[in-house]
Amino acid sequence: MSTDSILFGAAAIPEPDREWLAAAERLPISSIWQGGHLLPPTHTGEAVTRLALMTAWTERVRIGTAVLLLPLYQPVMVAKQLADLDSRSGGRVSVGIGVGGEFQHEFEAVGVPMRERGARTDEAMAILRALWRGDPVDHEGRFFRFENLRLRPVQPPGASGPAMRPGGPPLIVSGRKEPAMRRAARLGDGWLPYLISPSAYARSVQTIHTEAAAAGRDLTGFEWMMYLYCSVRADGDRARADVAGFLGGAYGDKPASMLDKIAPSGTPEQVAARLQEYVDAGVRHFVISPAAHEDTLGIVRLAAEEVLPRLKLPATPLAGTIR
Q1: Closest among 225, 145, 230, 155 to 193, alpha carbons compared
Q2: Number of folded domains that form the chain
């Protein structure tokens, strides 16, 4: 994917909604994302179910999971689900992947030890890619074993063959710690961290490049993304109150200065200045996640129409990307 421009996506907060998605598609955004837990503590959806809704209720934008907790899923089953959704959407699906760990009971419920979640994710990613190539697959791994399996994505009505992209959807690795960075460098098609500062993002870029070089991997076409909680309002004080109310409690009522490092808020001019720091650190595709309990579409609209045009690419291209 070319990185000669800066792209905006949006998180469908709080839940995918047909009218919200239709309005968002009319904005100058490139993607819409939503994740989900298996057993969340609130009445919120699961990642593949939400992805299916977004597939049905959008026409233009790229749609993705942010994130799918891959170690909780049987990889052959989820490979088929994602392949079918990519085919039915005309090749618009992307798969943001995380290892989870916030809710231990989810792992206990599906019989997956938390200590194995990283290794299971790595093996599952390899299985997804193998099955998406379309040839018969034999696999003998630590966690999964099968012989002569061939995945056939659903054929959309009127199509002469499956519309899934060759090789399947891109796998975008999420996280904040070095194991996730190493996974992105070795196995991922992109990097989608969250709740990190611009300086931390710059360090992650360097770590990924170092790990990729050690593995002999060329990162041309790698996607440098950022899942960014933020609030943009004409009233900057209201935007800052949004973030404090949405994220503050989760971080022990940290001061506003701490929240501003990881979740920008304010007027379009103020937020653009903060996002420019991320661009300078290497971000090329922001997923704007409205950190607010109301009028989330208003935040996405201001971000797309008044923040995005203010951002500028650095004069020096990001190493390992296409120009």
Answers
A1: 225
A2: 1
